[in-house]
Structure formats: C-alpha cells, structure tokens
Amino acid sequence: MSAPPKIVALDRFQTGESANPSHENILAGIPRTRVSNQYSDAKGEFFCGIWTSTAGKWRVRYTEHEFCVIIEGRVRIESASGEKHEFKTGDAFVVPAGFQGVWEVSEPCKKWYAIFEPKS
C-alpha cells in the first residue's frame, strides 16, 4: 500500500540550478537565470518552484502551460503577433502552451511558477 499524499510547503529560498536561455535565443543582455523546482508529481507533468533572472531579453517557445506570480522585479512579454504585456511585483498571469514570443526582464526578477505539461 502506498503512502497517502502529503502537503508540500514551498520555500522562498532558492538553492536551484542555472537555467540560462540558450545563446541563440538571447536578443539583449546576458541574462542569468536560476530555477529551484520544489515539487514534481510522479508523472513529471506538473511541477512548481521559484525562478530568478537578471536583466535580459530572449525568444521563448512554450510547450507547457505556466502560471506565474512575480514576487520581485518587472518583466515584459511580447507575443510573436506583437501583443505586449508588462508584469511587476504582485502580478499573476498564465502563459499557455504554444505561446511564442519574447521574454524581457527589465528589473531583476523572482517569480513563483507552476507548470503543467501533459505527457503524450
């Protein structure tokens, strides 16, 4: 018999690993990002934690659905079709799977993330 599921308390402290954008996607700056994944489900479809980044701008292509809450800093996101959004401390938003565009960190940023990417 397996153990019952337990609540996982998330930690604001980041001990994660480097997760810098690939060089071919960087459009400006030298962004330094870190990710601290703090929970993953057994199937590897859902995970969450903290992400941080220094200033920079890079192309993104999402295969996953991501819920974000900015806890420090400011970001700008522009879709491939030109739709622009700016988010700051306290803002929450979702980036849907299939989104393509540009992610720009204008002030050093920290965010909570929750990602769902179904396995086929």
SSE arrangement:
Blueprint (H helix, E strand, L loop, with lengths): L16 E2 L7 E3 L4 E8 L5 E8 L2 E6 L3 E15 L4 E5 L3 E4 L4 E17 L4
Antiparallel strand pairs: 1-3, 2-5, 3-4, 4-9, 5-9, 6-7, 6-8, 6-9
Structure in a nutshell:
It is built from no helices and 9 strands. It is mainly beta.
Task: Report what the structure shows.
- Strand 3 and strand 4 form a beta hairpin.
- Strands 1, 2, 3, 4, 5, 6, 7, 8 and 9 form a 9-stranded antiparallel beta sheet that branches.
- The model has no long low-confidence stretch (mean pLDDT 93).
- The protein has a domain at 37-116: Jelly Rolls.
- It is 0% helix and 57% strand.
- The protein has strands at 17-18, 26-28, 33-40, 46-53, 56-61, 65-79, 84-88, 92-95, 100-116.
